[in-house]
UniProtKB/TrEMBL annotation, chain B:
Gene3D superfamilies: P-loop containing nucleotide triphosphate hydrolases. The keyword Nucleotide-binding applies. Coiled coil: none annotated. It comes from Roseospira navarrensis. SUPFAM superfamilies: P-loop containing nucleoside triphosphate hydrolases. This is ATP-binding cassette domain-containing protein. One of its GO terms (molecular function) is ATP binding. It holds the Pfam family ABC_tran.
Amino acid sequence: MRAMLRVFPPLTLCLFLLPVAAGLLGTALPAFGIMPGGGGAAGLAPWRDLWATPGLGRSVALSLGIGLGSAALSLGLALLIAAGAQGTRLMTWSRRALAPLLAVPHVAVALGLAFLLAPSGWLVRLVSPWATGWTLPPDLATAPDPWGLGAALALTVKETPYLLLMLLAALAQVRADRAVTVARSLGHGPLAAWGRAVLPRVTPLIRLPVYAVLAYSLSVVDVALVLAPGTPGPLAVEVVRWLGDPDPAVRMKGAAGALLLTALVAGVIVAWRLAEIALGRLARGWLTAGPRLGGRGALKGPERACRPVRNRFRAGVQPPPGTTVVRADRVRWRLALAAALPVVLVVTLAVAGMALWSVAAAWFWPAPWPSALTLETWARHLAGSPWPLWTTVTVALAATGLALALALGSLEHERARGLTPGRASEWMLYAPLLVPQAGFLFGVQALAALARLDGTWLAVVWGHLLFVLPYVFLALADPHRRLDPRWRRTAHGLGAGRWRVLLRVVLPLLLRPLLFAAAIGFAVSVAQYLPTLFLGAGRHPTLTTEAVALSAGGDRRLIGVHVFLQSALPLLVFALALALPAWRFRHRRGLRAGEVGA
Amino acid sequence: MTLVLEAVTIRLGARPLVGPLSLTVAAGETVTVMGPSGSGKSTLLDAATGALAPAFRLFGRVLLEGRDLSGLPPERRRIGILFQDPMLFPHLSVGENLAFGIPRGVSRRDRRARVESALDEAELSGMGRRDPATLSGGQAARAALMRVLLAEPRALLLDEPFSRLDTALRDRVRGFVFAHIAARGLPTLLVTHDPEDARGRIVHLSAGERSASGGEEPC
C-alpha cells in the first residue's frame, strides 16, 4: 500500500497543476498569434485588436469595481461577524447558517436577485402601488444596473459565508477566545481586544482564501451575465464571448484578453498585499497602544485604578446587568447581527422568490404573491428536458468521488512519509482558484481537444475536478492531520494491516469530515459554469449552464425551476452529510461531537 | 518469549536521542524505562512497534523470541501496546472492540466465546453491546487490556498506562494489568515518568544519554 500511496501526489499534480500550467500556455500562444494546431502568424495583432476594442477601459473598470468592492465588503462583513459574535449565541446560529448558505450556487443567488431587484421585481411589488404610487413598473435599470452593483451584491452575500468559514478555522487555530479574554482583562474593549490580539494573527491564515475570493470576483462570468451590464460587460464576460467566436482573429483577441484578465488579477493581489503591509505599518502604533482609560462608559476618578479588575470581570460569563460591560457587548453583538442578517435575508429571499415563481400559475404585476399555484411548470420541464439534471448529478458525484479519493490518498501518503505540509503545497492547491477560470480554461479545452476528449462527459468531470479538488482537500486536510496517531498504532498493535486500519478505523473516525468535504465538493461542482461550457463544448448542459442561458429569455417560471433545483440538490447533500453520521453513530456517544482529536 | 533490544540507538537527524540501549526482557518480566518528558521514552516504544516516524533513524536490533523485527510492519510484530488513554474505538461497541484483534481464521462462534470470556474476566459481563463512551475509567482500562490480550501478542508495551486514572482506581487497574501479564508470561516494557508506577528492573533515560540503576543486563 505504501508503494501505491506514492502514486497519489504526482497523480494529483498531473490531474491538477499540469492543466493549469498547460491551460495558461494554451491561452498565451494564441494571444501572440499562434493557434495550437491551427497555424496563424505569430505577432502582436491580437493585442492591437484588443487595445482597439471600444469600451475596453469600461470593461476593466467594471471588473475592478465588482471584484474589489465585493471582496472588500465580504471580508469586512465576515470579520465583523467573527469579531462581534465570538462567544455569543449569534455565533452558534451563524455556524448553522453556513452550510446552507455555502450550498446555494452563485448563479442561483444572482438569478434570484435579478427578480428581487428588477423594476417589476419582488421588492417593488411588495411596496407598490400602496407606498410608491407606481401602477406600472418604474422605468429604471436596476437588474442589471449600469454599475454592476447587483452583481457585487450577489458576490458579497456568497463570499461572506465562505470567508467566515475560513476565518472560523483560523480562529480555532490561534485560540482566539483565550487571546480575547487576556486582552480584555488588560482593559481593552471587546472589538479592540479582537482587533489587537486576534486580527494580526488570523490575517496570514486567511490570506489565500481572500486572494481566491479576489480572483473569483474579478473574473466571474455567470453572475456577471445575469446581473452586470452587457454593453460592454465586465472583462471576463467579454473575453469568454470573444473566445467563443467563430472568427479565429476574434478568438486570438479573446486569448489576449484572457491574459490581460490574468495580469489584472495578479496585479490586484499584489496591490492588496502591499496595502495590507502598509496598513500593518500604520496600525502598529494602535496595536501596541494601551487601553483607553477615559473612554465612554469608563469608570471615572479614583475608581480608574480598579478598571483592569473590572474588565477581567467583563470577560466572565455573567456580567452584572446595567453596567458598561453589557453595553460594550451589546454594541458588538448588534454590529455582528447587522452584518449577518442581510446576508441571510438576501440569499433566502432570492431563492424563495424563484421557488415561488416555479410553482406560480399567474403572477401579474404588482401582486406581491402569485394568484394561483401549479406544478405545471415542473411537470413540463422534467418531462421535457431531464438531461441537465441528470448531467449535473452524475458529473458532481463523479468529480466529488474522484476528489475524495485523490485527497485521501495524498493525505495518507503525507502521513506515511511523515511529511509536514508546507506553504508551497498550499499555494499549489490554491492555484486553480487564484488563476481566473477564463484565463486558462481555453487552453485546457485545447488540451482536451488534443486528447480527443473535448465535448465528452469525462472532460466535463475533469474540468469540474480542477475546482472541486482544492475545496475537498482543504476541508479534509485539517481533520485528517488532527487524527490522533495512537488510533492507528493501537489498531496495528492488534494485528490490523494498513488497509484494515484505513477501512475499519480511519474512515469511520473521519466519516463526518469526509461527508462534509463531499458535500462541499458536490456544491462546488453543481455551481460550475465555465468548465462545463468549455470542456463540454455545449454538449453536456447542466442546471447551471441552462439557468444562465435562460436568464436572457426571462421566463421566470422556468428560471425558478432551475434555481430551486440548483439550490435544493446541494442542500440535500449537505443535509445527508450531517444526518448520516448522526444516524450511523446514534448509539456512539464518543462520536457525537464529531471530534476525535487528542 | 523474550524481548531483546540490541544496542538500540535512535537519532533525530544528527542528534542522538536514545541509546545505545541493550536490554533483555524475559518472559513474564517487566522492565521499566523512566525518564523526564522529551527523553525519548515514547520514541523507544515506537521503535519497538515499528511506528517510528520517518524523521527518526533507528540503529541496532529489536528481537522477539529470537526473531529480528527489523523491516516487519507494525501489524506483523505481535507486540501489543497500551496507552494512557484506553483508545477504545468510539465507532465500535465494546464487544466489537475486543474482537478487533482476534486473529483471522478463528471461527465466528469461537470469536464470540473468546470475547464473552474476556468480558467475564474483566468484570464486564453483558457489556459487549455497550457504547465504549459509556464505560467508567476503570472499565475502559480493563476492556483495553483485554482487547490487547485477545490479539495474542508475544510482548507488551505500556506507555504511561495508569497516569490518567485517579489514585483510588490506579492500584486496582495496575493490579489487574500485571496479574494478567504474569498469567500469560508476557515480556513487558513499561515507560513512565512516575516512580510509583515503576516495577521490576528500572532503566533511566535522560535526554540524549542513558544511565542505569538496578540490575541492568550486562551486554
